[in-house]
C-alpha cells in the first residue's frame, strides 16, 4: 500500500475493500500530528492512566511500551499507544513548559524564530546579525500590553553562548555544559534564580526585599543584604558580616554551637607560598572557649604561628602559640607565649617602638626579653631582662639568680641578692668608705667616681669628717650620733 510523501498517510488502492479502515487510520494520524501539542517531553515510560488523545514526546532511554521510540510522538488512541516519526520542520507545543519546539537535525530544539514565541508575548522582532546564520540572532520581545523595550533581549551565539538581558540585568552562560553567570548591569536589580545547568538546585536568586540569596542543594545557605552577609554551612555553623547601625562598625560573627573546654569557635587562617611556590599556612587566629558555664563563661584568643618549617596546624611542640584568656578558675587569667624553642639563648622579645626627632622609625625605647639560661631537665633556668633606652644606649635590669642592674663587677650574686654599680638611699650613695679608710688608711674620691660617675661628693664629705673625728673608732662614732641625733653621712635634724 502506498503512502503520502510528507505525512506518510496510507493511500486508498483501486477497488480496495473496507476503505473505511484506511480512511479512519489516516484521520487518526492527522488528529495526532496536526496542530501538534504534547503534555510532556521528558517521560521515558507511559503514564499510568492516560486519557484518549493524550500525546507525548518520548524521552531518551524509553522503556516498556515506549521502548525504542525515543524522540517520537506517542499518542494514546482507542486504548493503545500509536507512534509517529517526526520529520524536519515539525513544530510542537509542550504544555507543561509553555514551550515551542521544532524538530531539526534529528532532535527537538527550542524554537527561536519570529512568530513562534509563547502566547504570553504579542510583539517581537527578529534580527539576523550576519544575514547568513540562523543561529546567531537577537529576539526582542515585550509582555502583553507593555511597550517594546531594548532592555528585553535574548542573544543566542553560534557557539551556543546565551545572554538574556532583562531590565539591565544580564544572565549568561557559555554553551550547554557551563553554569550561568550573573552580571548585574543596573543598581537595585534583584535577579531571579540563575542555576547551574548540571544542578538546578544550586544558584543565586532573590530572597526578601533588597536581598540576594545563595542556594545550594535546594536550601538557602547564604544571604547578602543592605545590612550584612550571612553564610551558613548548616543550622549550627554561621559566619555573619553585619553593620548594626550607621554609627556602628561592620562586625564579623562566628556563631558556633560548640561548648567544650578550649574548643575553637572561629578561626582566621593566613596562607601564602613558600620558596617553591607551595601553599603554606603561616599563621592562624582562633577564638576559644575557656569556660562554658552559663553565667560564668570565659573566652580566649590563640594565635598559632609556623616555626622552622612546621606550619600553623602543627602539633603544639612544633609551632609557636600566643594565648590570651580571661580566666574562669582553671586556667587563671593569663597571657601565654608557648614556644617550641629549647636551645640556650633568647626565646622571646617584646619591644615598644617609636620615632626620634629626625623621624627615624623602629627606635626601641623599651623592651622585655626572655632567655633560656639552662635547658637541663630538672634544673632549667631562665632570665628576664628589662631594657630602657637612655642617651641613645640601652640600660639593663636582669633577673635570674638574683637581680642585676647595669653591668656591675661580679654579675649575679645568688637568690635574694641585688648587684649594682651604686645604690642610693634618698639621694645618698650607700658605699663602703669606712672599710677603705680602715683597711687602706685613706679614701680616694676618684676611685668612687669611677664606680658612680659624677656622684663622688659623699666620698668628699666622708674625708672631711675624718679630719674632725675617727669614723672607724666606735667611741668617736657614738659620740657623733649622740651629739647630732643622726649617723654620719645620713640626713639628720641638725647640721654636722
Question: How does this model look, in words?
Answer:
This protein is 10% helix and 40% strand. It is mainly β and 496 residues long. The termini are far apart. The relative contact order is 0.03. Mean pLDDT is 74; it is low at 114-152 and 174-201.
Tertiary shape = rod-shaped
Low-confidence stretches: 114-152, 174-201
What is the average per-residue confidence, as pLDDT, rounded to a whole number? Answer: 74
Structural class: mainly beta
Largest sheet: 7 strands, antiparallel
Spatial ordering of strands, largest sheet: 14-15-16-17-18-19-20
Rg, Cα atoms, Å: 47 Å
First CA to last CA: what distance?
152 Å
Helix content: 10-25%
Count of individual beta strands: 33
Beta-strand content estimate: 35-45%
Secondary structure tally, helices: 5
Short description:
Helices cover 10% and strands 40% of the residues. The chain is mainly β.
Record the SSE blueprint.
Layout: H1 19-33, E1 37-38, E2 55-57, E3 73-77, E4 80-84, E5 91-94, E6 99-104, E7 107-110, E8 121-128, E9 137-143, E10 153-156, E11 162-166, E12 169-173, E13 181-184, E14 194-196, E15 199-206, E16 211-216, E17 219-225, E18 228-234, E19 237-242, E20 251-255, E21 264-273, E22 279-291, E23 298-305, E24 320-325, E25 334-338, E26 345-354, E27 363-374, E28 381-390, E29 393-400, E30 402-405, E31 418-419, E32 423-425, E33 428-430, H2 433-440, H3 445-451, H4 457-466, H5 474-484
Parallel strand pairs: 1-5, 30-31
Antiparallel strand pairs: 2-3, 3-4, 5-6, 6-7, 8-9, 9-10, 10-11, 11-12, 12-13, 14-15, 15-16, 16-17, 17-18, 18-19, 19-20, 21-22, 22-23, 23-24, 24-25, 26-27, 27-28, 28-29, 29-30, 32-33
